[in-house]
């Protein structure tokens, strides 16, 4: 029996648990404040990064399209050369035709090749126009992108500075929070996190001030005040469900925090 008792972890009193909870609340509130300083910046930076990535993709697509049109024009030039050679060859053959049928055939062939050349030239001209239009769009896109990139650089710099300024504080606070969480039982911690999430000011544990709950500012009945001060049970505000601590305990936690 005696051995078993040694193995059980040190009993945490309700008072210690309440203090840990209230401390955790002050630490969580400080982390919240750091997040507020960062504000929308992290989201704005992320959105700008996504936008720029989209712009770069569009630019690369334009480049691909230009390359495709230029290749097509190279092919057209080659096809024109072949057709022109054929025209020369057939025109020469026209001098040595032996009958009308041969003459007609060659003439038709020459006409056909001329039409082919015309088609290739037309296609090349259309492609060139399209290339010029794309290049114009690329120019606008590049100018806009440059502006957006500058916006991003500024915002990123601002965010990095804030993170650098608050990094140490945040790390220290997060470590403190983890330590405190280990003292608090899981059920209470789950309730703490749930209340914090659902309340706009992130308060799940509040002190009583001038007989009122500092979470919702409703009056606390005298008997409940006594129960809170007794530190025998975890008492929650009957209006907002936040855990209540008496001003003395709150004061003690704040004093200890300052001494650290
Ligand atoms: Zn309340």
Give a short account of the largest sheet. Answer: 3 strands, mixed
Element order: H for helix, E for strand: HHHHHEEHEH
Q: What fraction of the residues are assigned to beta strands by DSSP?
A: under 5%
The tally of strands reads 3
Distance between the termini: 40 Å
Broad shape: rod-shaped
Task: Explain the overall architecture.
It is built from 7 helices and 3 strands, in the order H-H-H-H-H-E-E-H-E-H. The chain has helices at about 1-5, 15-40, 40-95, 100-185, 185-200, 220-230, 245-260; strands at about 205-210, 210-215, 245. The protein has a 3-stranded mixed β-sheet. Strand 1 (about 205-210) and strand 2 (about 210-215) form a beta hairpin. Helix 3 packs antiparallel against helix 4. Mean pLDDT is about 95; it is low at about 1-10. The structure holds zinc ion.
Keywords:
260 residues; mainly alpha; three-stranded mixed beta sheet; 7 helices; 4% strand; rod-shaped; disordered N terminus; binds zinc ion
Please specify the SSE layout and strand pairing.
Layout: H1 2-7, H2 14-38, H3 41-94, H4 100-183, H5 186-198, E1 205-209, E2 212-213, H6 222-230, E3 243-245, H7 247-259
Helix pairs in contact: 2-4, 2-7, 3-4
Bound molecules: zinc ion.
The site of zinc ion has 8 residues, from loops.
In short:
The protein has 260 residues and is mainly alpha-helical. The chain contains seven helices and three strands, in the order αααααββαβα. The protein is rod-shaped and about 125 Å long.
């Amino acid at each position: 029996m005696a051995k078993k008792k040694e193995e059980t972890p040190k009993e945490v009193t309700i008072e210690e648990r309440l203090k840990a909870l209230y401390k955790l609340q002050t630490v969580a509130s400080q982390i919240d404040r750091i997040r507020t300083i960062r504000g929308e910046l992290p989201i704005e930076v992320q959105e700008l990064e996504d936008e720029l990535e989209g712009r770069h993709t569009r630019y690369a697509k334009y480049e691909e399209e230009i390359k495709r049109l230029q290749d097509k024009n190279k092919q057209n030039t080659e096809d024109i050369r072949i057709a022109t050679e054929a025209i020369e060859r057939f025109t020469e053959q026209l001098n040595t035709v032996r009958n009308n049928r041969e003459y007609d055939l060659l003439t038709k062939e020459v006409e056909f090749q001329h039409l082919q050349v015309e088609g290739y030239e037309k296609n090349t001209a259309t492609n060139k126009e399209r290339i010029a239009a794309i290049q114009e769009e690329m120019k606008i896109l590049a100018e806009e992108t440059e502006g957006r990139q500058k916006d991003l650089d500024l915002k990123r710099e601002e965010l990095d500075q804030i993170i650098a300024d608050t990094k140490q504080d945040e790390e220290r606070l997060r470590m403190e929070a983890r330590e405190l969480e280990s003292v608090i039982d899981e059920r209470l911690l789950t309730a703490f996190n749930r209340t914090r999430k659902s309340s706009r000011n992130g308060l799940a544990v509040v002190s009583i001030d001038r007989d009122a709950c500092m979470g919702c500012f409703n009056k606390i009945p005298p008997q409940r005040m006594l129960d809170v001060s007794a530190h025998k049970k975890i008492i929650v505000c009957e209006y907002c469900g936040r855990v209540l601590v008496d001003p003395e305990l709150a004061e003690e936690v704040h004093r200890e925090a300052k001494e650290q």
